[in-house]
Amino acid sequence: MKKEYDFTDAEQGKFYRPENELDIPIYLDKENKEFFINKNKNSKANFSLNKTINNLIRKDIEILQSIST
Length: 69
Fold this sequence. Notes:
2 helices
């Protein structure tokens, strides 16, 4: 490491990203991941685990909202 660093031309916040713009890694349990991969293995449509899980969560949210109002 240098004794001193020159930050004269530094830009404050250059790499800052607001929290709501960050992608949050979500790790599925092995058996959950395997279930969806195996279920869609023979599907001719383009399979996206990301889209599948997001759709399930969206439906769960709709159900929760409908029973809580």
